[in-house]
Specification:
single chain; about 270 residues; alpha/beta; seven-stranded mixed beta sheet; globular; binds S-adenosylmethionine
Length: about 270
Amino acid sequence: MTDYGLAPDQIDTTKPHSARMYDYYLNGKDHYEVDAQAAAKVLGVYPTVKLNARVNRGFIHRATRWLAGEAGVRQFLDIGTGIPTEPNLHQVAQGVAPDARVVYTDNDPIVLAYAQALLNGTPEGRTAYVQADVREPRRIINAGELQETLDLSKPVAMSVNALFHFIPEEAKPYEIVRELMDALPSGSYLMLTHSTHDFSAETWVKVIEIYKESGIPFTTRSQSEVAGFFEGLELVEPGVSEPQHWKPDADDRPEDIRSADINMWAGVARKP
Ligand SMILES: C[S@@+](CC[C@H](N)C(=O)[O-])C[C@H]1O[C@@H](n2cnc3c(N)ncnc32)[C@H](O)[C@@H]1O
């Protein structure tokens, strides 16, 4: 049993899961043989997938620091959180603003099983975890844990990183983001990263096939399609860009990273 009373047999170890494959890419330990096999197949056709995952995490850390620092946001809603990976978003946000409040959400029972690691925040701040599917945005917004943790009359930075490529068109991904942002007040932010075929289309045909064989739908989107998620919002400089080019730290060397090795678009935008 885990801290949440989840029995190990509630975790499906017969087929790969995206959270556990991502844990493999980040050299974590919280995945099973079936995940390692599928992730190793991806690595075979896309050798820089681990760098992609690290660059994605780097963007999340810089964007969170910027939101808590320059933008002065004190409330965060992170959907599609993934298996805890240090530093987690609340550690980055509370490193800047110890009173920051963070609500995490994921639909995979493995994330719920390890959620305790997401709940060890500062005494001044607060964190909570909601087990929910992003395809049911109302359930996330109405969840008791969220309502008790966040004040929805004040700005919230909502992050959906490396999540919407798992949401196909028929699940209406743009409407989901709009519904979530509609529930947040003016001055709120959207932070999003998304895989793209723009730089290496042949690689993505192979990667998507491996996910599909594993029963995981995967939809890459072009820069303009990713920009569509930010419609009606004010993009923060440098706009929808490659994650390594989004406000790099002084000692980063984004020019040394090839676009076709990362294959991602990233952005942060403010709700007017
Ligand atoms: C690639 S991981 C990204 C983790 C983290 N956001 C990051 O960027 O480092 C994608 C996460 O989205 C979650 N996920 C996939 N489909 C989901 C859905 N329909 N609702 C909620 N979470 C979902 C997976 O369980 C996984 O933890």
